[in-house]
Amino acid sequence: MIYSYFAKLKAIINASPFVEAYKVKKEIVGSFVGQISIEITRKGGSILHGFEYVVVMKGKIAREKYRYHWMDEDGLIMQWDNAPHQREIVSFPFHIHTKNELLASAEVQLEEILKFIGRALKL
């Protein structure tokens, strides 16, 4: 089940017209837990680092942790995550970091992030 979920993430990356290349930096697949760490190079030169930690609960994949960190040569552009360190945010634990602020966010999926970056870069 986790293997299939990670294969779906890779298919989403491969289907994105804005991805120049990607590499899986780490992938651990167990019967009930898994994690994947990826680095996606975007057309235009920016990089998206991604991490997901998933578990199987009641026969379904549940994302316990995720982080997608979009950066360019100047540093952070945006980071989406669910780390439980921003309790004051209304959308806790989901939030977005930008260079200058912390924003509330719904839980996001990789496909949404890739589309957002494509629109932002006008690619």
Category by helix and strand content: alpha+beta
List the uncertain runs: none
**Strand order, largest beta sheet:** 1-2-3-4-5-6-7
Order of helices and strands: HEEEEEEEH
The span between the termini is 33 Å
User: Sheet with the most strands?
Assistant: 7 strands, antiparallel
Number of strands: 7
Q: What is the overall number of helices?
A: 2
Q: How many structural domains can be distinguished in the coordinates?
A: 1
Q: Strand percentage, roughly?
A: over 45%
Instruction: Kindly state the percentage of residues in helix.
Output: 10-25%
Global Rg: 15 Å
Q: Name the overall outline.
A: globular
Rounded mean pLDDT score: 94
Please specify the SSE layout and strand pairing:
Blueprint: H1 2-15, E1 19-29, E2 33-42, E3 47-57, E4 60-72, E5 75-81, E6 95-98, E7 102-104, H2 110-121
Antiparallel strand pairs: 1-2, 2-3, 3-4, 4-5, 5-6, 6-7
Structural notes for this entry:
The protein is an alpha+beta fold and about 120 residues long. The protein has one domain. It contains two helices and seven strands. It has helices at about 1-15, 110-120; strands spanning about 20-30, 35-40, 45-55, 60-70, 75-80, 95-100, 100-105. Strands 1-2-3-4-5-6-7 form a seven-stranded antiparallel β-sheet, covered by helices on one side. A hairpin with a 3-residue loop joins strand 6 and strand 7. The chain is globular and about 40 Å long. It starts with a helix and ends with a helix. The mean pLDDT is about 95.
